[in-house]
Amino acid sequence: MRSCKVIIVFAVIVLLFSSCTHMTTSGDLALSDHLARIIKRGELVVGTVGNMPPLNMATKDGEIIGFEMDIARLMAKELGVKLKVKTMPFHELLPALEMNAVDMVISGMTITPSRNLRLAFVGPYLASGKAFLAKTETIANVTDATEVDSPSTRITTLKGSTSQAFVEAVMPKAQLTTTNNYDEAIQLVLEDKAHAMVADYPICVVALFRYPDAGFISIQTTLTYEPYGIALPPNDAHFMNWVENFLNILEDGGNMEVLKDKWFRNGDWVDRVW
């Protein structure tokens, strides 16, 4: 009987020891699979378009900067790793995340129920809405997109974006051309190959400043509500919790407002890009 008790006690000790060794890695608390991989690699790999000023964009030297990239850099700093940015067309971002080619996506991505079925989202860290970028007031000033839903209306949007989904749902009669990036879409409007680009309002505003002589018009509307979120792998509560708390600290500490001032209310960055 005593030997049985000894065996049971020994088994419990082994179990506890095994649990402790699992809970610690070089003296640190156990991390989720994704966090552990990031720490071990020494890099936080972020997917973004790199062509959505002032959210993310390439400088003349090829560096990816912007409001979202500052958030990503601060995140990497808190993790104690370097930031690695991977740029790709918008419609390739979520597939890249699903294939673990990136750790997260930060690229003006609206949180939608359909996207959230595939992946986890944290946020929103910013909210916007759709607007028209056009050369004519007839289109730019509409508050109801159905007013210009006609076979003679030529619209362009970013491929795979909520702007494309919006046009397809609300303006099904319009001629829609999708592009891989906003430069291509803006160029179509510049060359009068499209009457308007539909995009989130901050994108349209930057185009106004970038092409002051193009005759562009864009107004802030309430056509849609676009809450931007950080896309993360599903089924990793620890990783999601870490990112959520990071954003809360950034917001509550006032640093998010500092970043908004830097990128949305100050144009010092423009010369670095164009």
Topology:
Blueprint: H1 2-23, E1 24-25, E2 28-29, H2 33-41, E3 43-48, E4 51-52, E5 56-58, E6 64-65, H3 67-79, E7 82-87, H4 93-98, E8 104-105, H5 113-118, E9 120-128, E10 130-134, H6 137-140, E11 154-158, H7 162-170, E12 175-179, H8 182-190, E13 196-200, H9 201-210, E14 226-232, H10 237-252, H11 255-264, H12 270-273
Parallel strand pairs: 3-7, 3-8, 11-12, 11-13
Antiparallel strand pairs: 1-2, 4-5, 5-6, 9-14, 10-13
Helical fraction? 40-55%
CATH-level-4 superfamily name of the largest domain: Periplasmic binding protein-like II
Question: Describe the biggest sheet?
Answer: 4 strands, mixed
CA distance, first residue to last residue: 83 Å
Q: Write down the CATH topology of the largest domain.
A: D-Maltodextrin-Binding Protein, domain 2
Estimated share of beta-strand residues: 15-25%
Q: Which ranges are low-confidence, i.e. pLDDT below 50, for 5 or more consecutive residues?
A: 4-27
What do these coordinates show?
- The chain has 2 domains: 32-128 and 226-273, Periplasmic binding protein-like II (D-Maltodextrin-Binding Protein, domain 2, 3-Layer(aba) Sandwich); 130-210, Periplasmic binding protein-like II (D-Maltodextrin-Binding Protein, domain 2, 3-Layer(aba) Sandwich), CATH 3.40.190.
- 43% of the residues lie in helices and 22% in strands.
- It is built from 12 helices and 14 strands.
- Mean pLDDT is 88; it is low at 4-27.
Task: Name some characteristics of this structure.
274 residues; alpha/beta; D-Maltodextrin-Binding Protein, domain 2; 2 domains; four-stranded mixed beta sheet; three-stranded parallel beta sheet; 12 helices
